[in-house]
Specification:
The complex is a heterodimer of chains A (88) and B (559).
Chain A: E1 2-7, H1 16-29, E2 32-37, E3 43-44, H2 48-52, E4 61-67, H3 71-83
Antiparallel strand pairs in A: 1-4, 2-3, 2-4
Helix pairs in contact in A: 1-3
Chain B: E1 2-4, E2 6-8, E3 12-19, H1 36-61, H2 63-76, H3 79-89, H4 95-113, H5 115-135, E4 150-154, H6 159-163, E5 170-175, H7 183-190, E6 195-197, E7 210-214, E8 219-222, H8 226-244, E9 259-264, H9 270-275, E10 280-285, H10 287-290, H11 299-312, E11 317-321, H12 349-354, H13 356-372, E12 376-381, H14 387-399, E13 404-409, H15 412-416, H16 418-423, E14 428-431, H17 432-440, H18 458-474, E15 478-481, H19 488-496, E16 501-504, H20 509-516, H21 521-532, H22 537-551
Parallel strand pairs in B: 3-4, 4-5, 5-6, 9-10, 9-16, 10-11, 11-12, 12-13, 13-14, 14-15, 15-16
Antiparallel strand pairs in B: 1-8, 2-6, 3-7, 7-8
Helix pairs in contact in B: 1-2, 1-3, 1-4, 1-5, 2-5, 3-4, 4-5, 11-13, 19-20, 19-21, 21-22
Classes of the chains: A alpha+beta (88), B alpha/beta (559).
Chain lengths: 88, 559
């Protein structure tokens, strides 16, 4: 199990398109992944509804936990996705 | 009766109402006669059918709509949602009811978060309806096809609907719900659909009613008189003609000329700008010459490019802005030191002064190109904050052979001291985007403070008025270059505040030209006064609209 904390890069936070890209990447990774806002309860990162319901905004710090599969590769890929601004 | 809402764009449409089918009733909460496993199979089957439908509509629509629809398809098969459904089925509920409740729980969660998230709640309602319709073997809710052109009236359109609207049939669109940032509004804007969103009273419209949809004024006119219909049709034809017709120089209704100019970033856009009726160039950005370069281009290279531009606009005015760079647009040879606040750092004239040789070479190349061509070249400096910087720039420009040297007013200090600044400059051009950013202390690139970045704000208008007044007193031209000039009503306000020319993206010229032609100089001043007296940006716009409608009753429009 590996985890990392990352700052959200998308201008409008983790909603709509950025949330879709993120949950798609989680679902296709095959690993069990959770995401939590600092101090919040971790939720299933493959669930777009659970992710957008976290109300994660631009600049928020979130913690990603990856369990199973090629953990480090998956984590790197997800962290990169989250820190990129997809609303440009 | 008039129904008000938020208009999207400038268009007008007239036609018969066709309502979108009302939503399905809430499924009754009764015990299922099937076992939970069987109900679970039904629910999962319908959820995946709807997900596949949404994804295929997305693939068909492409663009922004595809992302939205793909996200919706994912929501229909969301693991958390399916957990919620399964939990409910275990208590003996029907698949219809369990799906309804599961979506409703997420819907309420998003709606409770307000703003952007609340507008996404509508998406969930739509998916829920589609799944329940599939479970009940009812036709999926969607856009009707009456077989003739119509005005579509709906509670709100789901992205799935807007994306696949048949634009030959749908003349206009009116929604009861939805705000200016709803999907309906975004997609209507993208596809140039005449639309009014958030028109609460539109729920009272019935199939077959003829209405006028006036997006420019955010108005749905019900039971329009034959005269009102004729007027609407005239406006539709006028707008179509305006976008197609040969163009005349910009002027107010009383003949007062207001030069309509183009904002250009390279000489390549010249032909298109002229075709759309640009009388010259009000802002030529020179950054493109320098970006991607390790060193400043030579005087000769620059001279060739400026000559090409000036030749395209022979006999016309061309206002060139010298290099506007800073930590936000770093150029290795100019200023590459990182800064905490690039917008407040060494940029514009500050950076050029720091590397004066670049400025000298640019001015030299411009003067040489001017001497070799017939265009009327004006040159201005960006980010002027002080009278001293004004004097520095205009003196240097004069020494190097520039005949008309002016300043950009983007920093509030320059607007507040416009009289002193203009005493040393041949003209001023107001960059409304930066002026708004600095006046409201709101980063123009940051979405979270986008609401503050509105040039209608009376504080911004007051600064523009200072510059306009100084220009009139000293007999110096005051131009506007920036998004504000492209807003047809705000353009009139800006002229009322003393602007003598307006520069914008060429595509906005036709609407602005037509808008100016509706108002006299006195009208423009009255609109400006109304806007200045308001408390905020939205109120200023409303005040100007109110003043405009009291001034120009229907029919007084100048052809």
């Amino acid at each position: 199990m590996v985890e990392r904390t990352v700052r959200i890069g998308s201008t409008h936070g983790l909603h709509a398109r950025p949330a879709k890209l993120f949950t798609q990447a989680v679902a296709s990774s095959g690993a069990a992944v959770t995401i939590s806002k600092s101090g919040g309860t971790p939720v299933n990162a493959a669930s777009i509804l659970a992710v957008i319901a976290q109300g994660i905004d631009h600049g928020d710090d979130v913690t990603i936990v990856v369990d199973g599969g090629d953990e480090h590769v998956v984590l790197d890929r997800l962290v990169e996705l989250l820190s990129t601004d997809h609303d440009e | 009766m008039n129904i008000t809402g938020t208009g999207i764009g400038q268009g007008v449409a007239v036609g018969p109402v066709v309502r979108m089918a009302e939503r399905l009733p809430e499924p009754v909460d009764r015990p299922s006669h099937l076992d939970p496993e069987r109900e679970g199979e039904r629910a999962r089957a319908s959820l995946s059918v709807v997900a596949a439908e949404l994804a295929s509509r997305g693939a068909k629509a492409g663009g922004a709509a595809q992302d939205v629809l793909e996200a919706q398809a994912m929501m229909a098969e969301d693991p958390s949602l399916i957990d919620e459904v399964t939990t409910r089925l275990a208590t003996g509920k029907t698949a219809e009811r369990a799906v309804y409740e599961a979506f409703a729980s997420y819907r309420d969660l998003l709606a409770g978060m307000g703003g952007y998230m609340a507008e996404r709640a509508t998406d969930l309602d739509d998916i829920s309806q589609r799944v329940i319709a599939h479970l009940l073997k009812l036709p999926a809710p969607g856009v009707p096809s009456p077989g003739h052109p119509f005005i579509l009236v709906a509670r709100d359109l789901a992205p799935a609907d807007t994306a696949t609207l048949d634009l030959d049939q749908v003349l206009g669109l009116v929604t009861v719900d939805g705000g200016p940032t709803s999907h309906t509004a975004i997609l209507a804007r993208e596809k140039s659909i005449v639309a009014i969103v958030g028109a609460a009273d539109a729920a009272s419209l019935a199939d077959g009613d003829t209405v006028v949809v006036d997006a420019e004024n955010g108005l749905v006119v019900t039971e329009p008189s034959p005269a009102a219909i004729a007027e609407a049709q005239e406006r539709i034809a006028e707008r179509a003609a305006r976008l197609a017709a040969p163009v005349s120089p910009g002027a107010l209704a009383d003949g007062t000329p207001v030069s309509l100019l183009a904002n250009l970033g390279s000489a390549d856009g010249a032909a298109e700008a002229l075709r759309l009726g640009a009388e010259g160039v009000g802002l030529f950005r020179t950054e493109f010459l320098f970006l991607d370069a390790d060193s400043a281009p030579s005087v000769l290279d620059q001279q060739q490019l400026y000559t090409k531009l000036l030749t395209a606009f022979a006999g016309r005015k061309v206002v060139v802005r010298v290099l506007d760079a800073g930590a936000d647009k770093p150029l290795s040879f100019l200023n590459d030191a990182p800064e905490e606040n690039p917008a407040l750092g060494l940029r514009g004239i500050r950076a050029l002064r720091h590397a004066e040789v670049i400025l000298r070479e640019q001015l030299t190349a411009l003067a040489a190109a001017d001497a070799a061509t017939d265009a009327e070249l004006w040159v201005m400096a960006p980010m002027i904050a002080t009278v001293e910087e004004t004097e520095y720039f205009t003196r240097l420009a004069g020494e190097l052979g520039i005949r008309v040297a002016g300043v950009m007013v983007e920093v509030p200090s320059a607007a507040l001291l416009a009289r002193q600044v203009l005493a040393h400059a041949a003209f001023a051009s107001i960059g409304t985007n930066d002026l708004t950013q600095y006046t409201m202390a709101a980063d123009r690139l940051l979405g979270t403070v986008a609401k503050l970045q509105d040039p209608w704000h009376p504080a911004v208008l007051k600064l523009i008025a200072e510059v306009g007044r100084a220009g009139i007193e000293l007999g110096k031209p005051v131009g506007i270059c920036g998004e504000a000039a492209a807003d047809p009503l705000l353009a009139v306000v800006l002229v009322g505040l003393g602007a003598t020319s307006l520069s914008m993206s060429p595509s906005a010229l036709a609407d602005v030209r037509a808008s100016l032609a509706r108002y006299s100089q006195d009208d423009a001043k009255a609109l400006a006064q109304a806007a200045l007296a308001a408390e905020g940006a939205a109120e200023a716009k409303q005040a100007a609209q109110a003043a405009a409608s009291s001034l120009t009753p229907t029919g007084t429009r100048v052809p």
